[in-house]
């Protein structure tokens, strides 16, 4: 007899890319199920957290299709972490005169909070054309010249430096004003903490934690989309901080207006300050990043090797760093310098030449996943904007990244005419010239497709 989870997994497999399903869903086990509930277990806490932050909505929706709208879903991890929940990162607190018994100036400055990555500073952030505006805004804010930058909303694809800039701001602020209270967390931790506080009837402590700070930093705000109570609480937290002239820094993978499920009142507040985007680095910036990272690792990097990696890696900074780590390990194990032939051999398994070998089906799944719609919506005749724009983008990418003809692409999109594909492609090409927010979205999708 097919288990409830297997039925759900079969449907999920139709909604996500093969790589996504294999990486995040294939290892899930069913622990228990009933007519209205399902308990599943992920192999480890990292997988559990990723499922909750990125794929919870898909799992819940499909479970509701199977057992009805009152479905109860429970997720645990093989290493004992339940529901992907965990403690929030601590704040950097300001000791009071009464508590310390000394004037503030005479006290030792507090230690920096644990959440700060010591490597993420302005000094080693490589600035290029794709990120210079976001860098300038972050630096201005950190040096106390950012009155008009509240909130600062930084958006861009995965692994392009958003979190680096957040940590760099915190480092610079605490270097200059050590007693500044800074609280950094992810939107998923905000949600988990809210749920825990509601269950334990500790909402006063929750609100105090997030509102009695000088700077609140929330990473990946897009994951509060569709969560009504979380959005409501964040709305009031946002207002409380702004009323007391406290700084808010937010990151996301897309602009507020392009985030499905985000309430309009939050959209309007997010755009009330400064919005800065980070795009994929160009060739020169990638070379500079490689040289900076190589210096950090103490790895001699020949110019031709840096150029080779920069030409071949199309996606993000994390992949560049991954190539360097692999080369560094090889050089250490074999006690040798890395020249171009060695680099080509060592990186052969992780660097792929850009080709037009993507499939239309894979592009549909990745675009649907990004815009939080179903693949069936992309193939439907529904012309509402929430479906039409993702459909046009998917057709544009299918024409750009595959060898399929316009007739074949149209057939894959529910039997549409080839002229519809041509119109969609022309529409997106026109929008790319007039809408500056669209290019980062296309770049992000191309990165995901390239890595799939």
What does this structure look like?
With 452 residues, the chain is an alpha/beta fold. The protein has 4 domains: 4-77, DnaA, N-terminal domain (GMP Synthetase, Chain A, domain 3, 2-Layer Sandwich); 111-278, 3-Layer(aba) Sandwich (Rossmann fold), CATH 3.40.50.300; 283-346, Helicase, Ruva Protein, domain 3 (Orthogonal Bundle); 360-451, Chromosomal Replication Initiator Protein Dnaa, Chain: A (Orthogonal Bundle), CATH 1.10.1750.10. The chain is built from 20 helices and 8 strands. It has helices at 4-15, 18-25, 45-67, 97-100, 132-142, 162-176, 187-199, 203-211, 228-243, 264-270, 283-297, 303-312, 317-334, 340-346, 360-371, 375-379, 385-401, 406-412, 418-434, 438-451; strands at residues 29-33, 37-42, 72-77, 152-156, 182-186, 215-219, 247-252, 274-278. The strands form 2 sheets. The chain has a 5-stranded parallel sheet with strand order 5-6-7-4-8, sandwiched between helices. Helix 5 (132-142) runs parallel beside helix 6 (162-176) and helix 11 crosses helix 13. The chain is globular, with a radius of gyration of 24 Å. The chain starts with a helix and ends with a helix. Residues 81-107 have low confidence and may be disordered.
